[in-house]
Design goal:
The protein is of the alpha/beta class. The longest helix is centred in the last third of the chain and has 29 residues.
């Protein structure tokens, strides 16, 4: 059986199974525990509940083990039957408990994705000081697709079929700055959804400060209509009988050298197999929550790395 207090003694195995270090787990747990207690109290006091507070079965796992179970699920993405076996739970119990924990993690993960407020007064401060206070120069937008199980419903199959991947997929988009810090995450959508449509419907564009330059690939052609007051750069796209000129190729190459940052972020996200393997759960609810939680974990690690680099 996997338990936190025994696994934490094996640092390498702990990180392989959860995707984070013991120190990162403890930092995450300090945020998780009060949110979990509040969510449980709200659940137990709901008006439709028939039992009094204290009635019903108690959780077999401690709060630390509940969090550990969900991190193992996110990192290696076993079936819920396998997850239950690893933690000595039945398959329905493992599924039900992990969904509750994921919901709590998702709620406070949303606070992780915000643009900092730009400095209001510039007088008397150097350029380097302003850059330290507000380092964001770019907002880099991109989407990623993940295969899903083929829906049995014909209409759902059409909705999830991606012409790019030639199979059913789901899609999520992110906005990152030039340091790889995630500033926004969309809800997950069926793979047929266009990249530009998803970012428009997400509402994230309204939160990008005007002082920030927006960069995207050729799939976001037309984004200037949504951001008329922003500096915007998208890759040039060749058309039939109109090949790209050398100047456009050079510009695309320069934009790619900036856009590689968002590709690196996707690489870090997909170290968690729930965002890489064929997704077996509901796209709208479970995938959206899992993507946001993993993005928050990766964001914390990026911020910690940047802070250590500044100290060094």
């Amino acid at each position: 059986m996997l338990r936190y207090y025994s696994l934490r003694r094996h640092a390498r195995a702990f990180k392989d199974l959860t995707g984070i270090s013991v120190a990162e787990f403890e930092e995450l747990f300090d945020r998780f525990e009060p949110a979990w207690v509040a969510a449980e109290e709200k659940r137990l006091r709901r008006s439709s509940r028939q039992r009094a507070i204290g009635g019903g079965r108690e959780y077999r796992l401690d709060n630390e083990d509940q969090l550990l179970m969900v991190l193992v699920w996110l990192r290696i993405y076993p079936t819920t039957a396998t997850l239950g076996y690893l933690f000595d739970l039945s398959q329905p119990t493992a599924s039900r408990n992990s969904q509750r924990v994921l919901s709590v993690l998702n709620e406070f993960s949303k606070d992780e994705f915000e643009w900092p407020d730009p400095p209001k007064k510039y007088k008397g401060r150097s350029l380097s000081a302003l850059q330290q206070e507000y380092p964001d120069a770019f907002a880099i937008i991109d989407a990623t697709e993940q295969p899903v199980e083929r829906p049995k419903d014909r209409e759902q199959e059409k909705l999830h079929y991606s012409g790019k991947r030639r199979r059913p997929t789901c899609k999520a988009s992110i906005v990152v700055n030039e340091d790889g810090i995630i500033r926004g995450v969309t809800e997950s959508a069926p793979g047929r959804t266009h990249d530009l449509t998803q970012i428009r419907q997400s509402g994230l564009l309204a939160h990008i400060p005007q002082a920030v330059t927006v960069i995207a690939d050729a799939g976001y052609d037309g984004l200037y209509k949504d951001l008329p007051n922003h500096s915007l750069a998208t890759s040039h796209k060749a058309q039939r009988n109109h090949p790209l000129e050398q100047a456009h190729k050079d510009m695309n190459r320069e934009l790619s050298s900036v856009r590689i940052i968002v590709e690196n972020v996707f690489c870090h996200l997909k170290h968690f197999k729930i965002l890489y393997d064929c997704f077996r759960h509901d796209v709208t609810d479970v995938h959206s929550a899992a993507f946001a939680v993993v993005a928050a974990i990766v964001n914390q690690r990026t911020k910690r790395r940047l802070a250590l680099a500044d100290v060094g």
